[in-house]
Amino acid sequence: MCLMVYLGTDAPVEGFSNPEIGVFGLEPEPVPHPAALAAKRYVYGVRERGEGMWFCSCDLEDTTHTQPGDWDDEDRSVTEEIYARLTVLLRAALAADPAPLLFSCELWSETGEEVHAEPLHTATLSPSEITPGRGVFNGFATEPDWNPPTVIRLKPCHREGRPT
């Protein structure tokens, strides 16, 4: 089973489709496309770049890190780096489209029918609310190793009354 996270926007999100190997970025035109993002013009996979391929989104699933005492320094550093990159990416998505959507699900079959499932949950979060330790991509799970189909509407961050 793998966590899959997708980003849907109505305008392209530039600068994230060719990251270094081992860095999270945006896989253009992932297959399969999630049905929950069908209304969006651009759909990306939020994934780690591999050698000539894209991996899954499992490093965003931090179920083992929900208790601060469970983290060792290396886990914390890697997870915080991935989420910092995700925050930058999501802020760029908000700059391109005022209403981007994230869709996440657990992919457990070769046919990928989970990607086409109706979302079981929805949430509205700003990029700064999608942080390690919050379990954002598995926060609605009823089982420890399951990420139900979830849509997250991104909203701007606000500091001192101004979007950031």
Secondary-structure blueprint:
Blueprint lengths: L1 E8 L14 E5 L13 E9 L2 E2 L18 H24 L4 E7 L13 E5 L24 E5 L3 E2 L2 E2 L1
Parallel strand pairs: 6-7
Antiparallel strand pairs: 1-3, 1-5, 2-3, 3-4, 5-7, 8-9
Describe the structure.
The strands form two sheets. Strands 1, 2, 3, 4, 5, 6 and 7 form a seven-stranded mixed β-sheet that branches. The chain has one helix and nine strands; from the N terminus they run E-E-E-E-H-E-E-E-E-E. The termini are far apart. With 164 residues, it is α+β, with helices and mostly antiparallel strands. The radius of gyration is 15 Å and the shape is globular. The longest helix has 24 residues.
What's the quick description here?
By secondary structure, the protein is α+β, with helices and mostly antiparallel strands.
Question: SSE order, as H and E?
Answer: EEEEHEEEEE
Number of helices: 1
Query: Which residue ranges are poorly predicted, with pLDDT under 50 across at least 5 consecutive positions?
Result: 160-164
What structural class do the secondary elements suggest?
alpha+beta
Morphology: globular
- The total count of strands amounts to 9
Rg from C-alpha positions? Answer: 15 Å
Helix content: 10-25%
What is the average per-residue confidence, as pLDDT, rounded to a whole number?
84
Span of the ends, CA to CA: 35 Å
| Percentage of β-strand residues | 25-35%
Largest sheet: 7 strands, mixed
